[in-house]
Design brief:
7-stranded parallel beta sheet, 7 strands, Rossmann fold, about 260 residues, globular, 8 helices, alpha/beta
């Protein structure tokens, strides 16, 4: 389906991003990974993907807080793998605190990583898509791009902003062969969420699995975690011809969270 397409996936050395990268590689896309982590683990994931799907897979460690590094990553991707056809903005960080206690540097870091970085990658990759008259931009937002939770001012603000950015880009590219959509997952048991579960367990004096169940029961009516594979499959679908008229959408995959 995506043979010879080039996909750039930010925050793809683990979790949802890595799952999406694998799903796109499975459809024949060459993939540029991005993110931090243990170099050996990143190389093993890269090599395994390349070997498993017979595509080219590379890694760029751009720090998404810096626009110049994002530009260099996009340009290097185009030079090594070909013009970017698919851009998945997945990178994200989290910090929780009441607004009046929220550290200013944490606010800046979350807005920078979760929102501004997506603007910069789109800004730099979109001209290549426009020249080729085909492109898929997928922003991994969150249910928190649609609804709020306490103590998550920066994250909620960034994800709401990402949904808004998605709509603007969709309108500006409508009818051009380029689509831009947001995927809004509920609880997915990634490292980011695992840290919240651990903090809850510590605060409530319960074990990890009890804390996880409590987390689900508060927000997610299905009482089941969304899986990485489910999010990745939705991303792959949005890259297909069947999804050519889906643009500007915020697609929830949240076990009923936002239906309440």
């Amino acid at each position: 389906m995506l043979k010879d397409k080039t996909a750039l996936v930010t925050g793809s050395t683990s979790g949802i991003g890595l799952g999406i990268a694998r799903a796109l590689a499975a459809q024949g896309a060459n993939v540029m990974l991005n993110g931090f982590g243990d170099r050996g683990e990143i190389e093993r994931a890269r090599a395994d993907m390349e070997r498993s799907f017979n595509v080219r897979v590379m890694h760029h460690a751009a720090n998404l807080m810096h626009a110049t590094e994002i530009y260099e990553m996009v340009e290097w991707t185009c030079a090594q793998l070909g013009p970017v056809d698919i851009l998945v903005n997945n990178a994200g960080i989290q910090f929780t605190s009441p607004v009046e206690e929220f550290p200013r540097d944490k606010w800046d870091a979350i807005i920078g990583t979760n929102l501004s970085a997506a603007f910069h990658t789109i800004h730099d990759a979109l001209p290549f898509m426009q020249r080729n008259k085909w492109g898929r931009i997928i922003n991994i937002a969150s249910v928190h791009g649609l609804v709020a939770s306490v103590n998550k001012a920066a994250y909620v603000a960034a994800k709401h902003g990402l949904v808004g950015l998605t709509k603007v880009v969709a309108l500006e590219t409508a009818g051009s062969g380029i689509t831009c959509n947001a995927i809004c997952p509920g609880w997915v048991r990634t490292t980011l969420v695992e840290k919240q579960i651990e903090a809850r367990a510590l605060q409530a004096g319960v074990d990890i699995e009890t804390a996880a169940e409590q987390l689900l029961m508060e927000k997610q009516p299905s009482h089941q975690f969304v899986t990485v594979e489910q999010v990745a499959s939705l991303a792959a679908y949005l890259c297909s011809d069947a999804a050519a008229q889906i643009t500007g959408a915020s697609l929830t995959i949240d076990g009923g969270w936002t239906a309440q």
